[in-house]
Every structure is written in structure tokens, then in C-alpha cells.
Amino acid sequence: MPNFTLEDSVFEEAAERFPTPFHLYDELGIRENARLLNRAFAWCEDFREYFAVKALPNPAILRILKEEGCGLDCSSATELTLAKVCGFQGDEIILSANAMPPEEFSQARELGAFINLDDLTDVETLRTHGGIPETVCLRYNPGGAFTIGNTIMGNPGEAKYGMTEPQLREALAALKAGGAKAFGLHAFLSSNTTDEHYYPTLAGNLFALGKTLAGETGLRFAFADLSGGVGIPYRPEEKKTDIMAVGEGVRKAYREIFPQGGVGVKTELGRWMTGPCGWLVTRAMHEKRIYRNYIGVDASAVNLMRPAMYGAYHHITVCGKRNAQEDHLYDITGSLCENNDKFAIQRPLPEIRLGDLLVIHDTGAHGSSMGYNYNGRLRGAEVLYTADGDYKLIRRAEKPQDYFATLDMDPAAKELGVR
Ligand SMILES: *Cc1c(COP(=O)(O)O)cnc(C)c1O
After folding, report:
1. Strands, E, within 82-149: which ranges?
2. What domains sit in the chain, N to C, each tagged with a CATH number?
3. What pTM was estimated for this model as a whole?
4. How many angstroms does the Cα of residue 190 sit away from the middle of ligand 1?
């Protein structure tokens, strides 16, 4: 079930200090997740979590994760810049490529980051943009369907990421000719899965392939990067991923293939790390009764796109009414001119009054960061509920000037306040 560790009073106090809508993040919860993950992989002398920056690209959060020993997985120049200003460097950063501008390789090389190549053609790009480092990571795509037992976990054959096995061989030969000494292997084959066998199965495949390719090429297999994909329970009936069991499963796969150790393990979890530690706090502004009952709130899909984009479920509670009967049926909507701007459809909830605070759960990953500006709607603030119980603004809400900023060449720029 979703994360209910914070009392309603926390959301209410935050809403007294900051105008809704805002995302609130729980520092303690994020630290606890990082510590739990590190415990689950403590058996591996060379383990590191590289938090997927795109999930929650806020420096305040990234610094907390740095204190907990995490690195960062970046996917763009701006994310590399964020990593740098937060004090990450060298082997604390991975740049995961896919169809990216070549300059981003140069930028990553200047930081000394690991580079995770997506395609055979990336080898030449890397040679001419920053040069080939001693250790390079390669994204693997096994094609077909990825199954565990009889369950299809993902369809890599339809995914744009990674290289085929023959391409890995060709890339490694070219990298070796360019001076590389070692390689890592990375694959992302399933998204948001709470199945405890996902990482162990993936790890077993990468360990075996890494050993084979090392034997063939004479390059050292340095690490397996299990990427992201470990899921969280968005729905009340879903269960948490047992991360200790995941770590133990990966350990077994590791010991079978590398009984002497010597190979590293990396993860790039985003959702699992921070997803349950964020909540979108919004206020009921309108009630409308037509063929259905609608509650219009002051947040919209610009603050949280997952329901509109994927039909994703996010649990919703009403502050002060946690134990009330859920005897009303509502569609909870934002204000966009787009009928899929709904946080919930036909959801049983307690009776909602105008002014009630609604808490949308599990928005700590791929929430605010996926936001956009459709309809000229502005993205909201981000608030950190600190370990000592304080409320800290870690991103202000957007202002109209932010929306107009890219029009600074326009004749109306002065009136728009951007020149
Ligand atoms: C998005 C992404 C992740 C994080 O995925 P989660 O589902 O948040 O765990 C990790 N690695 C790469 C390369 C990604 O693109």
C-alpha cells in the first residue's frame, strides 16, 4: 500500500506556510530508503546506487542522497550540471546515453563520469568527444520479450534502448582498439516492477554475458549496472518490494558466476528511492455535479502528469478524513482544457468540502519533474519536510515571468517583464 508515515498535520502545517499546490518530500523517508538499499547490497564490496536524477532533480534532494553515499545517473547536459554543482564528480556520476548530443559526452568526460553507450555508433562519437576512457559501460538489449517464469516483464524487442549482443562484441573490439581496458554492462528491461526476481534474473543475465565477453575480448568485466525499474505499491492492495530479498537474490546470482568477487554492482533506482516519499498537496476549489460529480483542485497535470499520460493510479486522501467513510464517488480534476486532466476517475472518497486539502500520494519520483506548461499553467513549489520536523522551500512556484522568459526577443518582452 502507499506510504502513510506522515500525519495529516504535516500536510496541514505545510499548507499554512506555502500556497497550494506543492509537492512535499520527506527527508527521513528518503534517507531510510537509501540506507536500506545499501544494507541490501552490503555483501558487495563494490556497490553503489546512482540515483536517476530525472525522477527528482532538486539539488536539496541530490545533496541528501550524496550524504547517504549515492551517486547520480544523468541523462542530459543540465542533469550533469546539477550533479556538478551538488559536488558529485568522477565515478559518482553515470551518463546514460540515448540519442544525445555529442557535446554531452565531452561534458561527462570532463567530470570524469562513467559513460553508458546506447549504440555502436556512440563509440566513434565518444572517441571524438572527450576520448575513450579506461572503463566504458554498454547498454544491452536482448530483444524479444523479457520473461520471468511465465510472466512477461517487458518487451525489449520494442524498446529503443541498448545494443544487440553482436553489436556489444563489435563495440568492445572498437573500444579496446581505442585504449579501453574494462567495461560494464547495463540493461533496463522492466519498469515499476515489485517482483523480487526482477533484479536477480537481470543480474544473472548480465553477469553471465559479462563473463563471456570478458573471456572473448580480454577486457576486464568491471561491473553490472542493473539500472532502475524496481517498483513501488501505488495501489492500496499492492505490496512493497522486499528489497532485502532483492539484494539476496542478486548475491546468489553473483556468487554462482563470480565466487571470488571482483566485479561491481550498480543500481540506478529513481522511483523506489523517492517515489513513496513525496506527496502532491492540493486544495479542493470547485464542485460540479453533471453526469458525474467532479471536484476541481488547484493542481493539474502540469504538477503530476502520470495519471493523464499513463492512466496511472495515485492514491488520494483528504486531510482530516482518513477514517471517514468513503461513501462518495468523485472524479478529481485539474483545470487544463484536456479531458484526461484527472487525478482520479470514479474514486470512492469521503465527502469533500470546498477548501479541503487533498493529498495525492507517491509523487516523489517522476512527479514534479515531468511537469509542463500546457494552457499557460505554472508548475508548483517543492517543500522538504526535514529530518528535524521543519518545512523548507526547495523550489519556488513558477511565476508568469518564468513562462515568458523565453520570449525575451519578442516586441512585447518589456510588457511581459522579461527584458
Ligand atoms: C528512468 C531511468 C532510471 C530510473 O528508473 P526508475 O523507474 O525510476 O527506477 C534509471 N536508469 C535509466 C537509464 C533511466 O532511464
Report:
1. 93-96, 114-117, 135-139, 146-148
2. 27-275 (3.20.20.10), 276-407 (2.40.37.10)
3. 0.97
4. 10
